[in-house]
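User: If you would, consider this record:
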Amino acid sequence: MLTATARGITFSIWTRMIFSPRTKSSGNLRPCYAEGCKTVGFEIAEQLGWRLPQNIVVPMAGGSLITKIHKGFEELKKLGWVEPAPTKFFGAQATGCSPITSPSSPSPAPPEAEPSSGGRMLVS
């Protein structure tokens, strides 16, 4: 059992990680997002009359959605809500947003900050 101090430190680390700009788009690090994405698989099966599709094309973005849909299908099979059937997964990625197909492309430089007039900023 964690002490109050350990719980506080753990929560602090967890919230910093979850709300960090580096991890904001990662569904693998946010458990609520991951569990929510499984419902896409549930919805697909429901709309197909509780059958799994033979093929599915999933938008890739960062790549986590495709794994969560697969996990949703596997859970439905395990529960016996759908007949086990092989589903082929295909990922599609837009040219303008392709972190998977072009990971080695240099990132554009961030825009230069414009100084504001009259304000002061304190940095700690």
